[in-house]
């Protein structure tokens, strides 16, 4: 999992799954917080989707969407936080990914209330967005976001589902010969996207992000291959390296999909676009979405 750094907190899935607990009774939420700091790209994008961009006072160094978010004060990085920077920014609410809850006390010790945000599953993401909407007076915006996801994810399901391999590459792997790769395994959020698009994960093991050899991928012989390669400027060479493998159903015709938009590997509001892209590919593999 350490190799998929580009997901940088959007898909940080190690550790215990914490339920959204709102805020600590020792540091009660202030009514209508105005200076919010976000500790993950997925959280930052959700804040902007709820029309809270003007209240964002701090983000991580990996928060780059929308573009204006990258201009905000930096209060953290990959699995690290800077409570003092939050205090200097005048934060009256810090939003932590659920699996970074161990930083909660150090932030609350400075008098900054903390909310936990869970994006490890669609259910967790929507519950977190609704809790955030309630805490900030954006209930209607949160309800609309939840409805958009419900409409997209609860469509009709095909009886026969194409198998899908969803690989995740680091930038330093874009130009290497394919030998091994990290894939989406038992991760709930992206499995739900695969299923909502009309497919089923070709991997059936328990690891959330297993590292597989090319031989293992060939043995799976998935119907569809999806490759996450954020910020890849030109996918031509990478696409050719996959098609040159041969003997894989997933490289035939239009069954190979390379995702080079960073939004495709950040669970959050833009995942609706990712779902649409996967749904289009499924049609060429005999599924429907």
Mean pLDDT: 86
- Strand sequence of the main sheet, in spatial order? 4-3-2-1-5-6
Global morphology: elongated
Count every helix, treating DSSP H or I runs of 4 or more residues as helices. Answer: 9
**Whole-Å distance between the termini?**
30 Å
Element-level helix/strand string: EHEEEHEHEHHEEHEEHEHEH
The percentage helix is: 25-40%
Q: How many E strands?
A: 12
Q: Beta fraction of the residues?
A: 15-25%
Q: What is the CA-atom radius of gyration, in angstroms?
A: 19 Å
Report on the structure:
This protein is of the alpha/beta class. It has 9 helices and 12 strands. The strands form 2 sheets. It has a 6-stranded mixed β-sheet. Helix 1 links the parallel strand 1 and strand 2. It is elongated, with a radius of gyration of 19 Å. It starts with 35 loop residues before the first strand and ends in a 6-residue tail after the last helix. The relative contact order is 0.15. The N terminus is likely disordered.
């Amino acid at each position: 999992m350490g190799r998929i750094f580009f997901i940088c907190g959007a898909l940080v899935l190690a550790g215990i799954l914490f339920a959204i607990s709102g805020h600590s009774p020792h540091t009660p939420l202030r009514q209508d917080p105005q200076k919010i700091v976000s500790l993950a790209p997925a959280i930052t994008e959700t804040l902007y989707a709820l029309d809270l961009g003007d209240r964002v006072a701090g983000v991580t160094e990996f928060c780059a969407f929308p573009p204006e978010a990258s201009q905000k004060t930096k209060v953290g990085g990959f699995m690290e936080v800077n409570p003092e920077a939050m205090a200097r920014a005048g934060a009256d609410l810090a939003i932590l990914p659920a699996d970074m809850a161990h930083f909660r006390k150090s932030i609350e010790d400075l008098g900054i209330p903390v909310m936990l945000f869970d994006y490890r599953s669609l259910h967790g993401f929507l519950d977190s967005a609704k809790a955030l909407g309630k805490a900030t007076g954006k209930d209607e915006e949160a309800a609309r976001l939840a409805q958009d996801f419900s409409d997209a994810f609860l469509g009709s399901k095909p009886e026969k589902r194409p198998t899908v391999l969803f690989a995740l590459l680091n930038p330093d792997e874009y130009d290497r010969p394919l030998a091994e790769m990290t894939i989406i395994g038992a991760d709930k959020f992206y499995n739900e996207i695969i299923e909502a698009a009309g497919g089923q994960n070709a991997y059936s093991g328990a690891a959330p992000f297993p590292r597989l050899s090319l031989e293992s991928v060939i043995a799976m012989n998935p119907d569809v291959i999806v490759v996450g390669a954020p910020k890849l400027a030109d996918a031509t060479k990478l696409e050719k390296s996959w098609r040159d493998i041969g003997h894989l159903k997933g490289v035939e015709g239009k069954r190979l999909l390379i995702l080079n938009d960073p939004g495709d590997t950040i669970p959050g509001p833009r995942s609706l676009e990712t779902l649409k892209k996967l749904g289009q590919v499924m049609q060429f593999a005999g599924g429907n979405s």
